[in-house]
Amino acid sequence: MNEQLLHLINDRKLDEDQLKRHEIVYHSSRFCISIPLKDEYSHFRGQLEYRPGQDPKYIYLLKEAESPAIYNAENLKQAFFGKPIVITEAPIDTLSLEKLGFLSFSVLSARLNESHLKIFSRYTDKFVLFFDNDQAGQKAAEKVLEKFGLRYNIYNFRLKGEKDPNGMLQKGLDESLKSQLNSFIEGLL
Fold first, then answer.
1. CA 28, 30, 36 angle in degrees (round to 5)?
2. Is residue 150 helix, strand or coil?
3. By three-state DSSP, how is residue 116 classified?
4. Whole-number Å distance between alpha carbons of 145 and 142
5. Among the listed residues 41, 49, 92, the one whose alpha carbon sits nearest the alpha carbon of residue 67
6. CA 180 from centre of chain
């Protein structure tokens, strides 16, 4: 297995099965980890190139520029109306939450817009923003709430103790993350 993929497993605490199931591979010609982006019907919409330790860390290559990029959209059918959808800003966070049993989706760099919300609204009427607990992530969450908060049931979850879900996994704080997010979601039901 490639060193970059081993980084996701060993350092980021993801599972090899997750990488296979999500078709995450290393592209030696582009020197990046390729994360496919599919729509809710499992049609290929593009890919995310992930380059750990480089700037920019993520490069999005979409088939159709106007198409809303949602990581893990092919699993939207698993969501059910009345239960909130968890929205993260990075696929690594979505994969981290999946490892703990949560269904979540990434809007890629916290760029949640009306197109995303229309797609999500086909499956549920409640949305939990789980953006990074740093200044940029919380500023993005505030913008989403200001812009869409009156038209959609959007709630901002702020993680205690770490910047993001993957940071909690890396530090072995899985149970704390599960407990915090479960309590927040249960409070919305």
1. 95
2. coil
3. helix
4. 5
5. 41
6. 17
Residues paired with 48 in a beta bridge: 35, 60
Domain range enclosing 81: 3-188
Q: What angle do CA 148, 44, 21 make, to 5 degrees?
A: 95
Give the separation between CA 44 and CA 63, rounded to whole angstroms. 8
Q: What is the pLDDT along the chain (189 residues), one digit of tens a residue?
A: 788 888 888 888 899 999 999 999 999 888 899 999 999 999 998 899 998 888 888 888 887 766 788 999 999 999 887 789 999 999 999 999 999 999 999 998 778 999 999 999 999 999 999 999 999 999 999 999 999 989 999 999 999 878 999 999 989 899 999 999 999 999 988
State how many domains the chain has.
1
Between CA 154 and CA 116 the distance in angstroms is 13
Both tokens of 68, joined, read 């809303």
For the chain, the straight-line distance linking the first and the last C-alpha, in angstroms and rounded, comes to 42
Distance from C-alpha of 81 to C-alpha of 126, rounded to nearest angstrom: 8
* Nearest CA-CA partner of 110 in 85, 74, 136: 136
Start-end of H helices in the chain: 3-6, 16-21, 91-99, 114-121, 135-148, 165-170, 174-188
Tokens of 96: 């981290």
* CATH classification of the domain holding 172: 3.40.1360.10
What kind and span of H or E run contains 21?
helix 16-21
- Name the token pair of 106: 């990434």
